[in-house]
Amino acid sequence: MSSEKMGPVGGNMGDAFTDDAFDGVKKITVGKDLECVSYIKIEYEKDGKFETREHGTIRGELKEFAVDYPSECIIAVGGSYGNVDLYKAVLIKSLFFKTSYGRTSPIFGETNSFGNQLMLEGKNGGKLLGFHGRSGQAIDAIGAYFSPVPEPEKQEAIGGNMGDVFDDHVFEGVKKITVGKDLGCVSYIKIEYEKDGKFETREHGTIRGELKEAVLIKSLFFKTSYGRTSPIFGETNSSGKEFLLEGRNGGKLLGFHGRSGQAIDAIGAYFWPFPAPVPEKREAMGGNMGDAFDDGVFDSVKKIIVGKDLDCVSYIKIEYVKDGKTETREHGTIRGELKETSYGRTSPIFGSSGNVAGKEFLLEGKKGGKLLGLHGRSGQAIDAIGAYFWSVPAPEKIEAMGGNMGVAFDDGVFDGVKKIIVGKDLGCVSYIKIEYEKNKKIETREHGTIRGELKEFAVDYPYECITSVGGSYDHVDLYKAVLIKSLFFKTSYGRTSPIFGETNSSGNQLMLEGKNGGKLLGFHGRSGQAIDAIGAYFGTAIGVGCGNG
What's this protein's family per the entry (predicted)? Predict the structure, then answer.
């Protein structure tokens, strides 16, 4: 897959090694020998399977650092290097790792190292995909591959041209905004940002009494990914020019810039270039007794403990994750017999697992949206339960273009497309074979019967995805029908495939693509001996890289 290569840093002895870019890193074991890092073992993930790589031969004292992959990823590798007398070479002396949860590992190797410092990290928080470097008995040099992450989108400042320029640049997110009002304007703004799990504040403008005449920001309000809108801060009855700063597709706010002096003269913003999904609330099901509870929305659910008492679920304890930290919530008071679930596809039935004659219910997010929180009613036991799920937008169906002959086909919706093989016959595309992925398993579909000259186009799925399908269609004398004459594909990495089929086609042009760069999820159309018409399903882009379905 496409990745960003950093380094290597360190000495020039030992043999070169390169761990091809994987999907991510689950665990790293580091060996220390006297004054250096002498051994490293990495547990990588690739296509849902784990593979290990080892470098250096003197294991020494071993320590490990594991992350909650795939939710938590390593985003930076730090440490030091310098000359080690015992080996008569420049070696890696220490290593440490930072994660997407804001955690930093202990220092592995020489903890009191005064060597040259090293820091390997991808742009914009890209995750660690693999290592490269040099090693022999110990680790001579180390470099890393990181996943590419797009640059944030900068919205230009709107307002006046007085005051001093300020630029907070880009953080991971905004936790709180405090706005100060003076006569007729917004005179002060304080923003609480988050970066690497820590909070930092920035202040602009001062509340200083009478202001000089100038064009100023008169009011501000904010909208969130949960659909909430703040009150209007500043001049609520403002008759000035209105403005709205927002990221494309609902991307989240990352930072402010603008101009300020005694008040806020102009304001602009940085936004993440992808939309933020809105959690969907599933109403509580069950009884109407007990006290209402609502845990709200977290980043994820790590573990659930359920208590059974006689014929009911009498207790539930949920271990949530928020900003890299674990928080627990408990409901019901009679703990009874306790059982827990964390990982696994389907848990056992908790509670009365016999021939229950009650009403059955199922709470689930649309299209596989994950559980983010619970709400409901409880007293001594659990009276009713509802849930919040991550919202996954419905796929978009792009109507088929081409002829009206052949038999209709519809592959439906998969998780993504891994490879496409296209067959060319005289004057047309006569065959197409698609390698789809669904729940990490590969399924193929074929359309058209005359295979002809075969060529293929593969992407590095799931990191690279097909985002548009182009080509042409026209009447083909040999078949006495309107057929697809050519096809080509564009990907989320900006690549464009060769033209498959009739490369010099002058027929009608077709272009199938989803909104906002959504990935290709499936094909539909018409086919017989050749491909008469083609249409597609696309997801809605809501995340980094290929996004979600």
Answer: Belongs to the jacalin lectin family.
